Amino acid sequence: MNYKIISCKIFYREISLITSTSEHYYDVTYIRQGLHATPEKLSETIQNEIDMVNGGADIRTNYPPDGRPFDAILLGYALCSNCVEGLSSSGSPLVIPRAHDCISLFLGSAKAYTEKFFASSGTFWCNLSWSENCFLPDKRHQEWEYERLKARRGEKIAKKLLKAAEGWKGNYCGTAFIKWKEFEGPAQEAALKRCQECASFNGWSCETLAGDSSYMRDFLHSDWDPERFLVVPKDHKVVLTFDERLIDYE
Question: pTM for this one?
């Protein structure tokens, strides 16, 4: 089977790992993490990527070597601030995980994330890919942000702006680092250490959780159980269901 993946870069390590030993053909386009803060822009960006792939002339895409269209376009996104709402494909069907955000795919299921979320709200999640592709609210990031603001607005205003910008930290009390056994080694240990330093800097607790690659593996290996994945046929669009299914199509 031939699959196009359009994904948040938060899954870079995981997608690389799983596709490297798969029998399927994959071509991947990554979009930088952080656009979920502007859901409309993120949705527009993903839709543009889908349209370019279906148009057959996307300069970043290596089309299947056998000349056939992609059997499906896999979206490496969850609900993510409702960014998948309204997405559609005029060519290959879309496949989307039924999950609130990426943490479900790192933990192995939406249920595992929901249980952990309600058991310990106020958790700042992290893992190897997060540490490489997202910001951590640690000392280094604070110093970088201060210097950036100071250069633009001066020292006095920079301090005030930085204090106001960090007000969100009051909603958190701890960090949780998700480990995959497949990533055991120096890179993951370095990421864990940075997460622990971040927790210490903010006065938060820090715990380590065992992750589970099965959700991501099923996604990429086309084991699309309808309870966990939505397959959107050609010329249909994604809609929100506001129930346990999260998304459907019309």
Answer: 0.91
